[in-house]
Design a protein that fits this description.
The radius of gyration is 23 Å and the shape is globular. The two termini are 39 Å apart. Helix 6 packs across helix 7, helix 8 packs parallel to helix 9 and helix 9 packs across helix 10. It has 18 helices and 22 strands. The strands form four sheets. It has an eight-stranded parallel sheet with strand order 5-11-12-13-14-15-16-17. A seven-stranded mixed sheet has the order 3-2-1-4-20-21-22, with no helix packed on it. Strands 6-7-8-10-9 form a five-stranded mixed sheet.
């Protein structure tokens, strides 16, 4: 009996479907955006070939489902696509020169911003540049230096423009670094609430181009779906325009940001704006829920015991909680009562404890919430008791090994070696029975499917191996980016495995990520990434 022809037929050396109990397959047929058939015989689906069928023969490749990054910042990657890349600087002088070069071609008065993926400990001086030093690069432009998600540095021009001076109070949940005279040095922690009103939104064409570049860059590393954890309503509109133009390089599951918020009313206003997205049925772009912060990051994550003395702004400093806990509880309740989900950043062990206390109160006040409603983002320093408690409460967790990989050196400066080695204990989370999935936390950690697999399975970092007892197997690490990730977004029936009826989201690798040599795994990249049977990354890219 003849069958309607497929739009695409893939033949390859090995298809790992991730379907339990299914052995290697060697042919896969796609019609529309769905897989329609799969076969262990490379010629077993030749009956699906018609005059319009595209053939992709990859006899030496391994095909896997496309990977998810369950906690990243695609919006930041897009917004910084045209910014000054400073990750190659190895001294403050080189750093300033990069800004000086950009200033020479930038009209006076226009903001200059750096990309956020760099570490100050990679500079000879092992510190952030100051406002005065940035002023040497240019005093004709406001300059915003971004490092990761939580750190910003402004030159004097930008400080004046933002109205930040000795009398300015610290932002809620953040801080302004000051010299001995009380004058701001330029370095802010979680200071975007002070900057954002004065920083212009990119023009629509530039924003769309940045998102196009960034989304295809994710796809080039094997990432087919991102869970962006810091989106705004305006960002959603930009993503929708890109998606409508057919230029989005990865699927997006967005969490609306509350960064800089201090009241439940502000959250209610965002929820009102989210209503238009509630019933949109779009496999490319959807809203997952709302993102909150329980504590800070490397410099202000809430710990049970003090920071290292050199990085304690006051004696006995243990980090900061980002919200008044009662206000945060009311804000979270507003979200779940409207039927949306919540992801909350909790990084230090005190932050994790406070988050679990909060979620326990929410579960008491709104019983019977679906299991993926309340999610712990990071759970960085969660101890054994906290892990058991999270599992007993049914709280899923997202972990980000690339964050540790890239930030281990600077993290140790603040928290000490022992606590850094205990970050992201994936082995112990799995052994406790947790629902965990994996991501990158770009721009703090670098995104990339194989890069994350390498870190999760070796615990290698820029500062050597940290906490090898927390390493997991390749099979487990791949599951955290595929089947477990699809479960987190309630899409197990659509993604995460390769089977008839599921979306044709897949990656083709020149070397099998399951068996590739450890020394080559970190640099492994797919030759092809397909979403819904469409090539979003290929050899010509």
């Amino acid at each position: 009996m003849s069958v309607p022809p497929a739009d695409l037929l893939i033949r390859c050396g090995n298809i790992r479907t991730l379907v339990d109990g299914q052995g290697p397959q060697r042919a896969l047929a796609v019609r529309g955006d769905r897989i329609v058939a799969i076969s262990a015989d490379p010629a077993g689906l030749d009956g699906f070939v018609g005059p319009g069928t595209a053939l992709l023969d990859l006899p030496d490749s391994t095909v896997l489902p496309a990977f998810d990054d369950t906690h990243t910042h695609l919006i930041s990657a897009g917004d910084s696509a045209h910014d000054v890349a400073v990750d190659g600087a190895r001294s403050i002088a080189e750093f300033l020169e990069l800004i000086r070069v950009r200033a020479a071609s930038t009209p006076p008065g226009r903001w200059i911003r750096t990309s956020g993926h760099w570490q100050e400990l990679n500079l000879t001086e092992r510190r952030f540049p100051t406002a005065d030093e940035l002023e040497q690069a240019t005093d004709r432009h406001p300059v915003l230096v971004v490092r990761g998600v939580h750190n910003q540095v402004l030159n004097r021009h930008a400080l004046r423009l933002c109205g930040i001076d000795a009398a300015t109070p610290d932002p809620e949940g953040g801080s302004i670094a000051r010299d001995d005279a009380g004058r701001p040095t330029g370095h802010l922690i979680d200071g975007f609430a002070l900057i954002r009103p004065h920083f212009p939104a990119p023009d629509p064409a530039t924003k769309l181009d940045g998102l196009r570049i960034a989304s295809h860059a994710y796809a080039a590393t094997g990432i087919g779906t991102v869970r962006d954890t810091n989106s705004s309503l305006a960002d959603l509109d930009a993503l929708a325009r890109l998606r409508d133009a057919g230029e989005l390089g990865c699927r997006v599951r967005a969490l609306l940001t509350t960064m800089g918020f201090t009241s439940a009313q502000q959250v209610e206003e965002v929820l009102d704006g989210m209503e238009a997205w509630r019933h949109r049925s779009d496999p490319w772009l959807s809203v997952w829920g709302v993102k909150f912060w329980m504590d800070g990051g490397i410099e202000s994550g809430a710990l049970e015991h003090p920071y290292c003395p050199a990085h304690s702004p006051v004696p006995g400093y243990t980090g900061q909680l980002a919200w008044d806990e009662q206000v945060l509880e009311e804000a979270v309740l507003a979200v779940v009562r409207r039927g949306w989900r919540v992801g909350i950043h909790a990084y230090g062990d005190r932050g994790v404890r406070a988050l679990l206390d909060l979620y326990e109160r929410v579960q008491t006040r709104v019983p019977g919430l679906p299991r993926t409603t309340l999610v712990m983002e990071h759970g960085g320093l969660a101890n054994d008791e906290q892990r058991r408690r999270a599992v007993s409460m049914g709280i899923p967790v997202t972990v980000q090994q690339p964050l540790l990989f890239d930030a281990a050196t600077v993290q140790a400066e603040y928290w000490g070696d022992e606590r850094v080695s205990d970050l992201f204990p994936a082995r112990q989370w799995l052994d406790t029975g947790a629902d965990i999935s994996a991501g990158s936390d770009y721009p703090v950690g670098m995104y990339g499917a194989a890069h994350s697999l390498y870190g999760l399975t070796t615990r290698q970092t820029v500062d050597g191996i940290r906490g090898p007892e927390h390493a997991i197997t390749r099979e487990e690490a791949i599951a955290l980016h595929t089947t477990a990730a699809a479960w987190l977004t309630d899409e197990s029936d659509l993604r995460g495995q390769l089977a008839p009826g599921r979306l044709a989201d897949l990656t083709a690798w020149p070397d099998d990520p399951y068996t590739a040599a450890e020394e080559t795994l970190d640099g492994l990249r797919p030759s092809h990434t397909l979403l819904g049977g469409t090539v979003v990354h290929g050899p010509a890219d």
